[in-house]
Specification:
It is a single chain. By secondary structure, the protein is mostly helical. Helix content is 80%, strand content 0%. The chain contains three helices and no strands. Helix 1 runs antiparallel to helix 3. The longest helix is centred in the last third of the chain and has 43 residues.
Length: 87
């Protein structure tokens, strides 16, 4: 369980880094160095809103995965301690 949560956390973290990097720091939408296809498909204003929503969803997913990992580690450590004490 912890291994799956770790892999999912890594994937979400990488996607979050990508989402942050594609944002234009001046708030102008997706930068032209990444191609103008996104601007033609979404429009300049919609692309900024879409990337911002994706960023917030990824932040929420990362927070949930971190909390779930904490509880998975806590349960795993407790079971290992009980097993060691019973021997």
């Amino acid at each position: 369980m912890l291994g799956v949560l770790t892999v999912l956390t890594a994937i979400v973290a990488l996607l979050l880094m990508l989402a942050v990097l594609i944002q234009n720091p001046k708030g102008g939408g997706i930068d032209t160095t990444y191609g103008s296809g996104a601007q033609q498909m979404f429009g300049a204003a919609r692309s900024t809103e879409t990337i911002e929503k994706i960023t917030w969803y990824l932040i929420a997913a990362l927070a949930v995965l971190c909390i779930a990992s904490y509880f998975a580690i806590s349960k795993g450590a407790g079971a290992a301690d009980i097993k060691l004490q019973s021997q």
